[in-house]
Amino acid sequence: MAAAELAVPALPNSGGAGAPSGTVPVLFCFSVFARPSSVPHGAGYELLIQKFLSLYGDQIDMHRKFVVQLFAEEWGQYVDLPKGFAVSERCKVRLVPLQIQLTTLGNLTPSSTVFFCCDMQERFRPAIKYFGDIISVGQRLLQGARMLGIPVIVTEQYPKGLGSTVQEIDLTGVKLVLPKTRFSMVIPEVEAALAEIPGVRSVVLFGVETHVCIQQTALELVGRGIEVHIVADATSSRSMMDRMFALERLARTGIIVTTSEAVLLQLVADKDHPKFKEIQNLIKASAPESGLLSKV
């Protein structure tokens, strides 16, 4: 998205026939399609993207970069959405794919990575398949994050009813522990925390359940341009069917499905890394396979 400020003339705001109170009519254009809808007054870039995804999500290739453009009467054509733009008048916007197809490389560096630990809570213990195994692997990942100085964000789904994070998971030094009721971890507090961390490009995601909170979190992060690495041996569901189909679906969207050892060794990258010995000791014993090899 272009960062330059553009002078865009105000358009008459009649409110639009049928527009709900407090909203502004917007025409959303993508490819050969144009669909009228509305957004809350003051909506910015993120809400426009969400609306495009809701209208055209089945046609948008998430492997590509897009630019949002606004039709400017002054120029008689579309211009890149101005920085800090907020919808205040009736307008027309379009989503334009860039020509360059992006390849998901999956590079990880400590300085541009954040770990997300999702809902590893006590009440899930008897229900989640291989819960003991994924707790063990999750704890290994958090130890690695502390060694490498990587920020960690932890959520707990409705902790009043479902309990806190299990005692085996050491939360020492984590950046945030947040309650939530939404399935996705991408709640306002998490978005604010990500905005405060400079240069975040990758999220390493693990926890429960794979087909619900993990899946919805991953898809939302990718929609925001963040590369997601799901640690397969540290995520699970109540059903192995749900778990495996979710991992397959996510991999098909370009999300990287990986293992804890691969993540930790990719983050040190070199045996001469000052923390290599500590990471090597951490992974000396192989991680439990937690049912992932059941189809082999």
Describe the overall structure.
This is Isochorismatase domain-containing protein 1. It comes from Gulo gulo (Wolverine). Belongs to the isochorismatase family. Pfam families: Isochorismatase. Residues 113-261 form the Isochorismatase-like domain. It contains 8 helices and 11 strands. It has 2 domains: 23-97, Ubiquitin-like (UB roll) (Roll); 113-283, Rossmann fold (3-Layer(aba) Sandwich), CATH 3.40.50.850. Helix 5 (210-223) links the parallel strand 9 (202-208) and strand 10 (227-236). The protein starts with 22 loop residues before the first strand and ends in a 14-residue tail after the last helix. With 296 residues, the chain is of the alpha/beta class. A 6-stranded parallel β-sheet has the order 8-7-6-9-10-11, with helices on both faces. A 5-stranded mixed β-sheet has the order 2-1-5-3-4, covered by helices on one side. Helices cover 29% and strands 26% of the residues.
List keywords for this structure.
296 residues; alpha/beta; Ubiquitin-like (UB roll); 2 domains; 6-stranded parallel sheet; 8 helices; disordered N terminus; Isochorismatase_domain
Number of helices: 8
Give the number of DSSP strands. Answer: 11
CATH superfamily of the largest domain: Isochorismatase-like
CATH level 1 class label of the largest domain = Alpha Beta
So, CATH architecture of the largest domain?
3-Layer(aba) Sandwich
CATH topology (fold) name of the largest domain: Rossmann fold
Terminal CA distance reads 44 Å
Let me know the average pLDDT.
88
Largest sheet: 6 strands, parallel
Domain count, please report it. 2
Based on secondary structure, the structural category is alpha/beta
Question: Per DSSP, what share of the residues sits in E-state strands of 2 or more residues?
Answer: 25-35%
Q: Low-confidence spans: pLDDT under 50, at least 5 residues?
A: 1-17
Strand order, largest beta sheet: 8-7-6-9-10-11
